[in-house]
Amino acid sequence: MAGNPFSFIKDIIAIKTPKKSTLVLRMIVFVFTMVCGVYICSICLKQISTHGRAGFLDVPVIQKPCPEPQIEPWEIPYVHYPIPKTYSRAECACNPVRYFVILSIQRSGSGWFETLLNNHTNISSNGEIFSVKVRRSNISTIVETLDKIYNLDWLSSASKNECTAAVGLKWMLNQAEILANYKPMINATLLIPNLKQVEETTAKALEYFKSTQHIIVYYEDVVKNNTKLIDIQDFLKVPRRQLTSRQVKIHKGSISSQITNWDDVQKTLKGTHYESFLHADYRK
Ligand SMILES: *[C@@H]1O[C@H](CO)[C@@H](O)[C@H](O)[C@H]1NC(C)=O
Ligand SMILES: *[C@@H]1O[C@H](CO)[C@@H](O)[C@H](O)[C@H]1NC(C)=O
Ligand SMILES: *[C@@H]1O[C@H](CO)[C@@H](O)[C@H](O)[C@H]1NC(C)=O
Ligand SMILES: *[C@@H]1O[C@H](CO)[C@@H](O)[C@H](O)[C@H]1NC(C)=O
Ligand SMILES: *[C@@H]1O[C@H](CO)[C@@H](O)[C@H](O)[C@H]1NC(C)=O
Fold first, then answer.
1. Paired sense of beta strands 214-218 and 29-34, if any
2. For this UniProt entry, which segments traverse the membrane (predicted)?
3. Given pLDDT bands bounded at 50, 70 and 90, which one contains residue 281?
4. Is 225 in the pocket of ligand 2 (CB under 6 A)?
5. Are residues 48 and 82 both part of a single domain?
6. CA of 188, closest atom in ligand 4
7. Is residue 67 part of a domain?
8. Do both 107 and 35 map to the same domain?
9. Could you tell me the pTM of the whole model?
């Protein structure tokens, strides 16, 4: 995914979006970003530096500097050496850690995707941290939460050992729960506007993070194509592993059998550039 991010994004929006997908919101991409993105990064750095000072006052430990990592020079700003407060990184103290965020939309398969990532010994993805309201109630609580996660001090079922090499969380672009029901009835009137809105949200996110390193992952690609997970591990610079998830798919069978008013949906999408969604049945 190297090269000019602009052309890449154009690619995605122009070609990929209409090509893929099935169930309405399943079309959604998740964008996977390194957190050196603008805003998050600047608030983290600010906070880390104050923490650093406080830490040194309490514990005057002199940290031996780590040797230069064996990475490309352009990558240096993207690697970090967190010093968790709650434990020691021990033999991995000098392993560089990369920060990431998964940007996604509900019902896009990102939960399953996350369980795949968490099957890797060196990856810790901590879920939808900001679904808890108090954590996003103001900038201080957001910063505090992010600091904890990126300092490897966040304890969750996804926490790994001292050898975590990529740590992150999941962030929802919207709160749509349209497909939360087992067999939804899709409001045909709203279907096209909803699809448009999802496309716009995705485009906005891509625009916002265009200067941030990212990789775009389609649910269908992860389902169908094993090499996609290799690309993701390469992106996070963790050793390649075979990843599996314990989650099982609850929607089985063709899409037409899962939507109550399939005929309406079909009628609505026929002849639009979303028509391919009708035929995009996939099986695992
Ligand atoms: C990955 O999944 C396999 C198969 O379920 C399991 O044996 C292994 O312990 C998992 N690894 C991690 C780090 O969760
Ligand atoms: C932010 O929210 C937390 C939790 O709701 C609260 O304790 C804290 O005082 C708030 N801080 C500011 C600066 O508003
Ligand atoms: C991944 O974790 C193993 C131990 O579980 C560690 O030996 C290895 O150095 C880690 N790899 C990276 C890239 O940090
Ligand atoms: C679809 O949504 C519109 C707007 O919210 C609403 O007016 C309409 O009654 C809905 N149709 C059905 C069949 O639920
Ligand atoms: C699988 O993905 C790789 C890159 O991630 C791509 O080069 C290849 O064409 C894909 N294969 C299929 C069958 O889609």
1. antiparallel
2. 23-40
3. low
4. no
5. no
6. 1
7. no
8. no
9. 0.62
Q: 15-38 pLDDT, tens per residue?
A: 233 333 333 334 333 444 433 333
Residue nearest to atom 3 of ligand 3 (CA): 163
Atom of ligand 4 minimally distant from the CA of 187: 1
* Residue that wins the pLDDT comparison between 250 and 85: 85
Residue 135 Cβ inside 6 Å of ligand 2? The answer reads no
Domains contained in the chain, number: 2
Question: Does 159 share its domain with 36?
Answer: no
Domain assignment present for 264: yes
3 state SS of 29: strand
169: amino acid identity, one letter: L
Are both 9 and 139 inside the same structural domain? no
Measured distance CA(98)–CA(113) in Å, rounded: 18
Residue 152 CA to residue 164 CA, distance in Å, equals: 8
40 and 152 in a single domain? The answer is no
The tokens describing 101, both together, are: 């965020």
Instruction: Read off the pLDDT of each residue in 215-229 and give the average, rounded to a whole number.
Output: 87
Residue 61 belongs to a domain: no
Ligand 1 test: best mutation among 244, 245, 247, most atoms within 8 Å of CB? 244
Name the residue with higher pLDDT: 284 or 72: 72
